[in-house]
Amino acid sequence: MNRPSWDEYFMDIARLVASRSTCLRRQVGAVMVKDKNILATGYNGTPSGIRHCSEVGCLRQQLNVPSGERHELCRGLHAEQNAIIQAAKHGVNIDGAVLYCTHSPCIICSKMLINSGVKRIVCTDGYPDSLAKAMLDEAGLIVESMEAKAVS
Description:
Elements: H1 6-18, E1 29-34, E2 37-43, H2 53-56, H3 59-62, H4 79-89, E3 98-103, H5 107-116, E4 120-125, H6 130-139, E5 142-145
Parallel strand pairs: 3-4, 4-5
Antiparallel strand pairs: 1-2, 1-3
Helix pairs in contact: 5-6
């Protein structure tokens, strides 16, 4: 029997969570885990009750905003933000948690993850944000990259 490692297992779940995204540019999924238990999940998309970008178009595409810049020019929240929000909404403590995310966090998400007490981040795809990487390093968060798995 060939069972996935815990990291593979939770990253596979993050990929499944990403499939709920309505973002036109990239689908991102995040899973907060502590003691091998899932605490919260999130995917990138608009706030609850707001029309999806798939319905109204992508503001960032319309304005030609490059990836990794001007995060405020977007109708959606990032997957990491939604996972943190879901944990807070349901009274779940994520201090000391591990974040499994299909992409490495941007600077805004990195600052939120640092202050929320996340201790380790496991991601597959990179993101063009050197300040985020520098701040995560300075804060002492363990950031590990997993090889992206081919989708069959």
